[in-house]
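Tutorial, part two.
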Amino acid sequence: MDFLRDNAGTIVVGIAVFAGLAFIEARMIANARKGKTACGCGCTGCAKDIAE
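Running the prediction step on this input gives:
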């Protein structure tokens, strides 16, 4: 129990960072499934889209 007590702040911050990253990733996946792009302006005209 000393480990948890001594590192409680680090553990809480780590969990918060992990939760934030998981939320961002889930949001990006949901947007991709809806057909939304990361930049919000579509892929027509993007360098990668033109090269293909």
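Residues 2-51 form one domain. In part three we will examine how such features are distributed along the chain.
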